[in-house]
Amino acid sequence: MFTIFGTTALIISYFPLYYKELGFSSTQVGYLYAVGPLISMFSNMIWSYASDKYRTIKKIMMLLIGGQLTLLLFLTQANSFGAVFMIISLFYFFYYPVYPLADTMAIQTAKRYNRSFTVIRVFGSIGFALFALGIGYVISLAGANRAVVIGIAIGTVTLILSLLLRDGVVKRSGGMELSGLVKMLRSKEIFWFFICVFALALGHRMNEAFLTLTMAQLGADEGLIGWSLMLSAVSEIPIFFLLSKYGDKIKELPLLAFASLMYAVRFVLMGIVSDPMSVLAVQALHSVTFGVFYVTAVRYISRLVPTDYQATGMALFTVFWSSASGLISGTFGGGLFESAGRVTFYYLAAALAGLAAAGFMWRHIFHRD
Fold first, then answer.
1. To bridge 233 with a disulfide, which of 128, 133, 220, 340 should be the other Cys (CB 3.0-4.6 Å)?
2. What CATH number should be reported for the domain holding residue 288?
3. Other CB atoms closer than 10 Å to residue 82's CB: what's the count?
4. What is the mean pLDDT of residues 317-332?
5. Has residue 154 got a pLDDT over 80?
């Protein structure tokens, strides 16, 4: 989890700067950001369904990490937008499915050793924080063109560590059947949850894709951008520990509504700020936005989805949280950021988060067992 989320810090936060180094426009950066979610809409389901069917996470994760490394090697030789677009498209086929599989393995490992999933997942936050800061300083010294080489180094370490993983053995209640998957997808409770997740994810991915460019626009250097990313990741850690101890005592839907409302506040403040130091302060809200939302959402979806479909359920969550939302925010976000400006961009994100908060509370108040 530590090294996997180190890769996340690089791909999400510093690859936009790498694309800028190659001379790509904000709109082109948006397209490069959007192609990943487009690819992952089916790659997540393919790999996670295979994991559930063949009952192995370890082997598939190793295959995915190996694929990432191969594509990064090709990326070092690409300079034109067309070549980068093609390689990145293939890269994302192997990149996105790692995360729902890693979360599923963490859930299984927690059950095996009678530990909390949250305590395992917190190492992802620690990895993201330390890598975000470290990569920021390396890039400030060596240049954004070193981003791909850094990715190869992190991926190599991750592949070596994956050899030590242990597959979870889950007893099937009745075997994995496609009809059971269809029945799960027809659940009104799951459908409503995914719609609310999608609305919130649109705002979250808009901020994620253009945070580093926003800070650069406000005059921040790579070192300060690294501190901003580290601060947001570190802020998750105490929240994760609190939720691991007390989270089960609070119903999921009100917690999800609270997190969505705090997202709206965070995005409004991002529209107001006028200097990079203010962005650092706003980033502290990552704790009560993503920190609360993610742990609670995983707990909620784990309760709703049968054991036989655990990896597939997490993949569906990832499709709505990362893939579909990232596709739309990346495709239209770049143009909106350029044409309407940062303020309008973040106010729209805030409105989407407010809509999600209303949806979660509506379901909580009017839900009938």
1. 128
2. 1.20.1250.20
3. 8
4. 78
5. yes
Query: Domain range holding 246?
Result: 2-165+178-366
Q: What is the helix (H) or strand (E) element at residue 272, kind and residue range?
A: helix 252-272
Q: Whole-angstrom Cα distance, residue 152 to residue 149?
A: 5
DSSP class of 168: -
CA distance 343 to 237: 29
Query: Would you say residue 170 lies in a domain?
Result: no
Residue 271 domain flag = yes
Is residue 315 a contact partner of residue 45, using CB atoms and an 8 Å limit?
Answer: yes
Q: In this structure, is residue 172 part of a structural domain? A: no
The total of structural domains in the chain comes to 1
Q: Is the dihedral of CA 215, 139, 329, 190 positive or negative?
A: negative
Decide if pLDDT at 183 tops 80: no
**Dihedral sign (CA 244, 231, 255, 96):** negative
Residue 34 to residue 41: CA distance in whole angstroms: 11
pTM of the model: 0.75
SS (H, E, C) 297-337: HHHHHHHHCCHHHHHHHHHHHHHHHHHHHHHHHHHHHHHHH
Do 334 and 27 form a contact (C-beta atoms < 8 A)?
yes
